[in-house]
Design brief:
Helices cover 34% and strands 16% of the residues. The protein is α/β, with parallel strands linked by helices. The mean pLDDT is 93. The longest helix is centred in the C-terminal third of the chain and has 27 residues, at 864-890. The chain is built from 34 helices and 27 strands. Helix 4 (41-50) packs across helix 5 and helix 9 packs across helix 12 (185-192).
Length: 891
């Protein structure tokens, strides 16, 4: 082990300030190993000569060091290049300044990109220093007195009386005439220790005045105009970032605006990790107007400290138990009080739960939110809100099983809100190329990504990757795009121009499509890697049928239902005749039966094991089939297919007396003596779907499980081959399109993190764990009895494949939106709220605002020890009083 270098130890103690005095400096101290790798003893002498936070000239240093001015200046410029000192000009003089380690020196050292690449331990030191050295100090800071402090979003405070000039971003933009932009030093450091959160570091933080001059002259930052600085601030707010600035100088002096995320920022850890938000807070906190709040969740997802969570708006019969959380204000604060897993245990919902509709939706779409926007005639905004989670709203408006409606609280009064019909009305704007919604790009990253399969999972993944500016190519083995949306669903349920219109939006976003290309046959994954593709998303769906494994199954006239639908949708000559028997009871079986009616079947019957109540098919779908003449026969399972000369003539069915066991596992029991022969000219099998991989996985370490599903991580969707991700039916088995859409978005999030260096697949990622409130515990009184609106239907014509279901009129849609109870709302933890105002930028409903609660005024770094000491005395008194009260309560 190398011997400690005394001059580096001395320099580390000096720049550590208070922390340098009270902490031991050895080879493992972050101050030491960050400096030791780039600072020579001679340069350390120069820095020590300058002292801490004192502007010096080269002449001063030359005199103190006994060097020629030219040599002293060369040393100072080298220290400036390293980041140990800052250089700028003031009143005709060139000045040099050694700042504290953080905030200050470490950011400057990290922002030397070449130096960080050569010495990644500097990034490690930044993370370790700001964690270890701040830990003991965090509870001791007075309100808003830490070295970094939150600067609120200006629009959130502009109308509040008593706002001080230094609380506004525009004050600093007006004060200085030189600006630069640099990478975020916190995120750069996180990247180097493989702890990135997906928020990227490139050109996001702003320097001003002498800070900008230093960053520009040393190549750390790019010079920008004030207008460009304003654009960066706006872009940061749009991306969900909040603002902070170093507050160590005289009041009103601030040489940087940091645009931070709560999941990577080292300063924000004072709030998120140590749970001592008072230290960095602004003078404001968020307040929610529950009457206006619609629990869309946008503020919750973007809150940097998880101070906002979704709860319920409706009154409860039993009020929730008030939980009194300990805070650092009046308790002794230890390691046990911290939130060590703050980057992984973020919660979106309060203990009591939130809106059942948002909870029930697999994609957790903001149902209340888009219903409210639609009621106000804000259709583009409503569409934009839906597409934050679902890029195929017009498709889903026609085929979604609408579990949100099944759980709708309005159903406790009369009938649920017609959520899907409202969404369909909104989403039909997608069909008009002149008014459709195209989301803005967040980044322009350009990495090549391959999506295999153009069904709902693949389309969703491609859409969200395109928002980040990735170069996405979707490979589809069929000649038509859309996967099972196009080939597995008949047009009378989902007309193909609807699918194509939503796919056209992806084309406008830059997504490329290659049809008639089967990956694994026409091109391999390895060949695509050689072409520069950096990650793959497998979304091949479950496109094959399943066998019955009974006698006669291979006879002529016996077809897989899914193959039958594919042939019809591809326009192949597919004509039936006579008696058609469909075996199966799910939604696909219903589609097969209704298609059989339209392709020549004279008598079409459906046979399934389940009772009518147990059938997997939606009741409305089953009713549609019956309306078209399909005969449903429940409680029958196939015994054998009867043939003559190799062709089907009928099916023998046996009575099914029980489908599921007591634990609701599939375990059918039959009465072998109760057998019925059903004549059939065609038998269409629709008992499930299989996954057909072809040669796609040959030579790949990707693993498959029962039924051929890919084994992928349940959260990240990463497979055993790191650059291969998968989602949709090929992972879960056959489910609804909305499940695949949700998986596609999560896959895109993972791929973004995977291809960007140093990003974790999980850290700082929203796990989107929702639960609904107890509907039995809410008061549902005083609401009107407006009946549910019904969509019209054109005259039924069993011979056509046209979708006969009509869309709500605007009047119907408005009436239906009025029935919504608006049962969810956001709740604020005022202690954890740091008053950044990010929430206000995400609310479309004017439901959340900042209000002034504190009156702290930041001071200089030199005055901080005295203020901390005074606060320690006050805090000790509060701790003592609290201890007595708690002891009395327990007694």
């Amino acid at each position: 082990m190398a011997e400690l270098r005394p001059k580096i130890v001395k320099l580390a103690k000096m720049v550590g300030g208070v922390a340098g005095v009270i902490n031991k400096i050895d080879e493992n101290a972050p101050e030491y190993y960050a400096l030791e790798c780039v600072v020579s003893d001679e340069l350390a002498d120069v820095a020590l000569t300058m002292g801490l936070r004192k502007p010096r000239t080269a002449e001063y240093v030359a005199e103190k060091c006994g060097k020629p001015v030219e040599e002293a200046h060369k040393d100072l410029m080298e220290l400036a290049r390293i980041g140990v000192c800052k250089v700028w000009h003031e009143e005709g003089k060139e000045l040099f300044w050694v700042n504290i380690f953080a905030p200050g020196m470490l950011e400057m050292m990290v922002n030397n990109r070449e130096q960080l690449e050569a010495h990644p331990q500097i990034g490690k030191a930044f993370e370790e220093y700001t964690r270890k050295r701040i830990a003991t100090m965090a509870p001791m800071f007075p309100e808003g007195m830490a070295m970094m402090r939150v600067i609120p979003v200006e629009d959130a405070i502009k109308d509040i009386p008593g706002v001080q000039p230094w609380e506004k971003l525009s004050y600093y933009l007006d004060k200085y005439d030189k600006f630069s932009v640099s990478d975020c030093s916190c995120r750069a450091s996180r990247r180097h220790i493989d702890e990135g959160c997906g928020h990227l570091e490139h050109e996001i933080c702003i320097q001003m005045g002498s800070g900008a001059e230093y960053y520009i002259s040393t190549g750390r930052g790019r010079e920008i105009t004030r207008a460009e600085a304003e654009e960066i601030i706006k872009k940061a707010e749009d991306m969900g970032l909040m603002h902070e600035g170093p507050h160590t100088e005289e009041l009103g002096e601030c040489f940087a605006i940091c645009n931070c995320c709560g999941c990577a920022c080292f300063s924000m850890r004072i709030a998120t990790l140590f749970k001592t938000p008072d230290a960095i807070r602004s003078n404001y906190v968020s307040k929610v107007d529950k009457e206006k709040c619609v629990a869309c969740g946008q503020c919750v997802e973007n809150c940097p400290t998880n101070a906002l969570q979704l709860g319920q708006k409706l009154c409860g019969k039993k009020p929730p138990e008030e939980k009194k959380e300990k805070t650092a204000r009046n308790h002794v604060w230890h390691h046990d009080n911290w939130n060590l897993n703050y980057r992984e245990n973020r919660r979106d919902v309060t203990d009591e739960g939130t809106s059942p509709c948002k909870t029930a939706c697999p994609a957790h779409i903001a149902v209340q939110g888009y219903i409210k926007l639609a009621s106000q005639g804000k259709y583009t905004e409503a569409l934009a809100l839906i597409k934050k989670e679902n890029p195929l709203p017009a498709v889903c408006g026609r085929i979604c099983p609408h579990g949100c409606e099944s759980e709708c609280t309005r159903g406790e009064i009369d009938e649920p809100i017609a959520i899907d019909e409202i969404k369909k009305f909104i989403a039909d704007k997608e069909l008009d190329a002149g008014v459709r919604y195209i989301p803005p790009k967040r980044y322009d990253l350009g990495n090549k990504i391959a999506v295999i399969g153009s069904g709902p999972a693949g389309i969703s993944c491609a859409y969200y990757l395109a928002i980040d500016g990735y170069q996405v190519t979707v490979f589809e083995k069929e000649e038509k795009l859309g996967g099972m949306l196009t080939l597995g669903i008949p047009s009378f349920r989902l007309e193909k121009d609807v699918v194509n219109a939503e796919i056209d939006i992806l084309r406008e976003m830059g997504v490329a499509f290659k049809t008639g290309v089967e990956v694994g046959k026409d091109v391999t994954l390895d060949e695509l890697r050689a072409e520069g593709y950096e990650a793959f998303y497998l979304a091949v769906g479950a496109q094959g049928g399943r066998r019955l494994n009974v006698e006669g199954e291979d006879a002529q006239g016996v077809l897989a239902g899914i193959d039958f639908l594919r042939g019809v949708n591809l326009g192949k000559e597919t004509r039936l005749s006579g008696n058609v028997v469909v075996i199966g009871g799910g939604n696909v079986a219903v589609d097969v039966a209704r298609t059989a009616v339209r392709t020549g079947g004279e008598k079409v019957s459906m046979y399934c094991l389940e009772s009518r109540d147990e059938m997997p098919a939606l009741e409305e779908e089953a009713q549609e089939a019956e309306n078209e003449g399909v005969v449903l026969q429940n409680g029958w399972g196939p015994k054998r297919i009867v043939t003559e000369n190799g062709r089907v003539t009928g099916v023998e069915f046996k009575r099914c007396i029980r489908v599921f066991d007591d634990e609701h596992r599939f375990a059918p029991q039959y009465d072998e003596n109760d057998v019925e022969f059903v004549p059939a000219d065609y038998v269409l099998l629709s008992i499930g779907q299989s996954i057909e991989w072809g040669g796609l996985l040959e030579g790949s370490p990707v693993e498959t499980g029962r039924g051929g599903v890919v084994l992928a991580d349940g959260f990240t969707y990463q497979t055993a081959q790191p650059d291969v991700f998968a989602g949709g039916d090929c992972v879960t088995g056959p489910k609804f399109a909305i499940h695949a859409i949700a998986a596609g978005k999560e896959g895109a999030i993972s791929i973004h993190r995977f291809v960007q260096p140093g990003q974790s697949l999980t850290l700082g990622r929203d796990r989107r764990e929702y639960h609904a409130f107890d509907k039995d515990n809410v008061v549902i009184e005083g609401f009107d009895n407006t009946p549910r609106q019904k969509a019209g239907h054109t005259q039924e014509n069993k011979a056509t494949f046209k979708d006969g279901r009509e869309t709500f009129t605007e009047e119907q849609m408005k009436k239906e939106t009025e029935r919504c109870l608006g049962c969810g709302a956001v709740q604020v933890d005022e202690y954890m709220c740091v008053g950044c105002g990010q929430c206000t930028t995400k609310c479309n409903f004017d439901a959340i605002h900042l209000v002034r609660k504190y009156d702290s005024v930041p001071g200089t770094y030199e005055a901080l020890p005295v203020k901390m000491a005074a606060n320690a005395v006050k805090r000790s008194g509060r701790i003592a009083v609290t201890a007595v009260k708690e002891a009395f309560t327990k007694g």
